[in-house]
User: Fold these one by one.
Assistant:
Number 1:
Amino acid sequence: MNHFETLTEAMEDLRDRGYTHEFAPKKDFLIEKSTETKLRGEEFNVDEFHRFEGTSDPGDEMTLYAITTNSGMKGVFVSAQGTYSNEVSSELMAKFNISDRANVNTQGSVEPLTNSPAAQ
């Protein structure tokens, strides 16, 4: 897995690999923004994730999830720290807790950006 320095760079790479849809959480399901397709937790899988930490503000933390639905639709879900904490069911957000799932690609994805010029 590549280590990306920016969210944009990661999203472009995922788009090139077929993750072209955008998802957002809504209560106890995800919704695909352009088609308004609703997905329950059992209808999609998290394939990989990338976390980005702000260099000066911890509130800038973002996590990018690459998702594949059971029907084969691929897309991304971007979560800002705490953004959805009051809007989404705990059951849906548990789907994004990848720490106990060996099939999710996490290789280096939580490594802080310490090599970038902005972080030095």
Number 2:
Amino acid sequence: MPRLPSRCRGRPYLPSFMSAFKFETTANEAASAVSSNIKGKNVIITGASPKSLAFEAAKAIAARQPNLLVLTARSPSLLQETRDTILSEVADVNIKIVEFDLSKQDTIREAAAKLSAFDVKFDVIINSAGVMAPPYALTAEGIESQFGINHIGHFLFTNLLVPKINEGATIINVTSRGYQLGNIQWDDISFEKNSYNKWHAYAQSKAANILFSGALARRLAHRNITSFSVHPGTIHTNLGRHLTQEDLDMLAGIPMEFKNPQQGAANMVIAAFDPSIKDRNGAHIDDDNQIKAIPAQFAYATGVENEDRLWALSEELVKEKFVY
């Protein structure tokens, strides 16, 4: 792993903020607490396949009378399974499914165009889809798959939808404490010069999720749009389907306290709908459902300079500029 910077630079993060929610809070409990802010909203959730955190968040939100719940994933059959499961529990919710592949920018553009044709504007986007520590692969555009799917795909998808989101909307980017496993290789994002390390690749994609939220918070503040990054915690889901015992052994010594999927999905709901944090725009919510500062030794995951550098790199990789 590369040596980590010792201090933060750029925009300082706000100090820790104590909310009413705890480590053990479930998505259902969080949704019940903020139900009045879910009712009537138009919500998009990416990565809503069965056995995912997005699936748990979607179920909790669906039960609180949103106007429209849009679920996306790569597999149409898995999306249909998610939709059918939710409708078997909440019969009167309006659910639409849109399949697209975050590793293929043409399908992202097609999905965004389809959503832009809907006769509503959106109040919440929860970018939850992702991959973790797979074997080395490239996206259709030649970007290392974790950075390409976890960040670049959501960067393009979100920015294409900005014209279709309401004033006061909220954008959530699901990150991970895994951002602490390695810095951003600004000059070698796709490991063309350095040997591939799956955990380092994961780390830089998750640091990008944090920086993207900070950048959105600044750039869209004039429309009262907020953005937060959230670390759900350590949970057994299908995200870990690529992991070998050797991969897990590499994480030995890192403190972990496991959650169940319902608990893991809670801070997506909190970040999206809790009105008490609206004035903490750009903040990071940890797995105890509290707003926390990014520790100083991980300076690559914070600061205006890094946010703007990532934005410029992302525009280059999607071959489109987004100015607000």
